[in-house]
Amino acid sequence: MLHMISFIDPAQTSALGCGNPTERARSLSACYAKGKSGQIFLVPYNSGCHWMLTVVNPAEEVVHFMDPLKRRLTTGEWKTIVDNSIKIYNAQKTKKGRKIVTWKNFAVCYEFY
Question: Superkingdom of this entry's organism (predicted)?
């Protein structure tokens, strides 16, 4: 399964110390470009408060988002960074992408014993 999934270093994506949003989008798109065809990317993200996981399939332009505290899709800067990273990736591949990237929420369920 290692050829199907790639883990992106959180040092390239988190809100603190990783550059401005444009630099972070470019960094993500470079990771997609280094990956294999059809590969999905696990992108951990820390907004400064807690960790979230974003699963990106740049070829299909689909993003799955998991936030264990909010159970809802993210908005704002992180969504813009991921959307722009996919647009940059498509531009480098000279692929015309969709107008809007599809975001899906993964509900996180916990059982406490």
Answer: Eukaryota
